[in-house]
């Protein structure tokens, strides 16, 4: 995360948003209803090593070292105050789009209905996500309405507001 220099208006919006969320929590106790998601690239190196039996005191054969080319995979994790609801690894070469995000929403809601039925049956979950393009796309907004999810306001450049 690269900190941005916020102007006075952006700071005011952050304060207003935080106050609105605190006031809403005082009236409705919303913290236990919040569901959030984050995406993260994970770098890994899955080296294969050859195994061979050696006599005691003998040296192993020298093999040329391969260039290390770490691979990466994107993981998405959905959680609430009750714990992790869903995680998935995106296939290599697939980036998050509104389509992928909507599929993740469907999967997460299905798992949440199974793992935390009280969450879904008694009061609708509140979704806290940032303003990434696929989060604010019309397709995503329609999917949120279809699933009965309310998205909480999240001002730009405020990763510290995520749970």
List the helices and strands and how they pair.
Blueprint: H1 8-28, E1 34-44, E2 71-80, E3 83-89, H2 98-115, H3 117-121, E4 126-128, H4 133-136, H5 138-147, E5 150-151
Parallel strand pairs: 1-4, 4-5
Antiparallel strand pairs: 1-2, 2-3
Helix pairs in contact: 2-5
Summarize this, please?
The chain has 163 residues and is an alpha/beta fold. It has helices at 8-28, 98-115, 117-121, 133-136, 138-147; strands at 34-44, 71-80, 83-89, 126-128, 150-151.
Strand content: 15-25%
Return the CATH class of the domain at 9-33 and 95-161: Alpha Beta
Structural category is alpha/beta
The residue-averaged pLDDT reads 83
SS elements, strand count:
5
Task: Return the CATH topology of the domain at 9-33 and 95-161.
Answer: Nucleotidyltransferase, domain 5
Profile the largest sheet: 5 strands, mixed
How would you characterize the overall build of this protein?
- There is one protein chain.
- This protein is of the alpha/beta class and 163 residues long.
- It has helices spanning 8-28, 98-115, 117-121, 133-136, 138-147, and strands spanning 34-44, 71-80, 83-89, 126-128, 150-151.
- The chain contains five helices and five strands, in the order αβββααβααβ.
- Strands 3-2-1-4-5 form a five-stranded mixed sheet.
- Helix 2 (98-115) packs parallel to helix 5.
- The two termini are 16 Å apart.
- 11% of the residues are buried.
